[in-house]
Write a structure and sequence with these properties.
- The chain has a six-stranded mixed β-sheet with strand order 6-7-8-3-9-10, sandwiched between helices. The protein has a four-stranded antiparallel β-sheet with strand order 2-1-4-5. Strands 12-13-11-14 form a four-stranded antiparallel β-sheet.
- It folds into two domains: 233 residues, Rossmann fold (3-Layer(aba) Sandwich), CATH 3.40.50; 67 residues, Alpha-Beta Plaits (2-Layer Sandwich), CATH 3.30.70.980.
- It contains 13 helices and 14 strands.
- The relative contact order is 0.14.
- A hairpin with a 2-residue loop joins strand 12 and strand 13.
- By secondary structure, it is of the alpha/beta class.
- Helix content is 34%, strand content 24%.
- The chain is elongated.
- The termini are far apart.
- The chain binds adenosine-5'-triphosphate (ATP) and magnesium ion.
- Magnesium ion (MG) binds next to helix 2.
- Adenosine-5'-triphosphate binds next to helix 2.
């Protein structure tokens, strides 16, 4: 007799460890004017986020990032499609979902008329935690976010960077294991962003927090995220690790400089396996290949064999800008500049002091 359980395929490792799952999410807002066509903001989005990873949701203004976050965090209902947090359908028990997640909104939510500490105590109260029990944890959060020295100042006197850090602390006040961050570093200067990344990595590495973050900074997704999904016009157009996405672009560019006056090594380099689009300009050679770093020793050996000395070798991975251009046919910046389509990004201050600054 066949065991009925055996006919159900065993879940894959990714499915077993996935803590956020979107299945064919769709959402269309009512058109702004009567008669305008209804355009989906999110148009069949599916992905899984694994436990303990930083998952980047990358896309230009108006791509559908905030709408997706809202669908995953019970602020909007998917229709149709479904979303699960730790296997729980987000529409079946919204309050349970909210207990399990932390959420930092794209727009600033801290109350300027309260101090930073009061904001955190208030937020903790929403999760049923009394000020007395939560105080030590709030003190440690304030210290971690380098806000102790301003903890008792009204938030309206904070810089933009301080506000952002306070809002991240507020998202963590009930110690969730899953954190949604919508454009957490928007408007921060490079130092402020680096400080934010440090804390986000700390949450992943030492607290085991799974982080879903949206960003339209390509370099941020590249440096911070374990995996990325790129969304454009409500659809996911690519996903994978930053390196996988770059490899799909035909790989790295390798530049080889030989000693001045050395003999031509075009045929030597062209004969190496995996060398594509080889160009020579004087003593410099440039070609593409899938994993540049693994080819470098072979380049050196092959040149040595024909008695040609190498003055330098460099490998360069394509940027995510190039990935985006390749996937969509338009540049990321070009799309990102269409700000009139967006809702809210413009509200963030443009110049903010560095994280940890006064
Ligand atoms: N409340 C709303 N009512 C009507 N349309 C909306 C609303 N919110 C968003 N949209 C539209 O839905 C689409 C997706 O918007 P969404 O805010 O999800 O994009 P986003 O990727 O978060 O953009 P940004 O980078 O500017 O924050 C856009 O065309 C936007 O204009
Ligand atoms: Mg947004």
């Amino acid at each position: 007799m066949t065991d009925p359980a055996r006919s159900i395929p065993a879940p894959t490792l990714a499915e077993r460890t996935s803590v956020i799952e979107a299945k064919d999410l769709r959402m269309a807002y009512p058109p702004a004017r009567r008669g305008d066509p209804v355009r989906p903001a999110v148009d069949g989005v599916s992905f899984q986020v694994r436990a303990g990873e930083i998952f980047g949701f990358l896309g230009p203004n108006g791509a559908g990032k905030t709408t997706t976050v809202s669908l995953l965090t019970t602020l909007l209902s998917p229709s149709p499609g479904s979303a699960f947090i730790e296997g729980v359908d987000v529409t079946s028990d919204p309050s349970e979902i909210r207990r399990r997640i932390g959420l930092v909104f794209q727009i600033s939510t801290a109350d300027g008329e309260l101090t930073g500490r009061e904001n955190l105590v208030f937020e903790a109260g929403l999760y049923g935690r009394s000020p007395a029990t939560v105080r030590p944890y709030i003190d440690s959060l304030l210290a971690r976010m380098e806000l102790t020295h301003v903890a008792d100042r009204l938030v309206k006197t904070y810089s933009g960077g301080m506000r952002r850090r306070l809002e991240l602390a507020a998202g963590m006040v009930h110690e969730p294991k899953i954190l949604f961050l919508d454009e957490p570093t928007l408007g921060l200067d490079p130092q402020g962003r680096a400080g934010f990344w440090k804390y986000i990595r700390y949450l992943r590495d030492t607290q085991g927090v799974t982080i879903f973050l949206t960003t339209h900074y390509l370099d941020e997704a590249d440096q911070l995220c374990d995996r990325i999904a790129i969304i454009d016009h409500g659809k996911i157009i690519a996903s994978g690790t930053p390196n996988e996405l770059k490899d799909r672009m035909g790989g790295d560019t390798v530049e080889v400089v030989v000693a001045a006056g050395a003999s031509d090594v075009t045929s030597v380099l062209a004969g190496l396996p995996g060398v594509l689009e080889l160009h020579r300009s004087g003593d410099q050679y440039r070609f593409k290949c899938v994993r540049g770093e693994s080819l470098v020793p072979k380049v050196v050996l092959a040149c040595e064999r024909v008695g040609v000395e190498i003055a330098g070798v460099a490998t360069r991975k394509p940027s995510l800008d190039e990935v985006f251009l390749n996937l969509t046919g338009h540049s990321y910046r070009e799309e990102g500049e269409v700000r009139s389509e967006s809702n809210g990004s413009d509200s963030a201050p443009a110049e903010l002091p560095a994280m940890g600054g006064a």
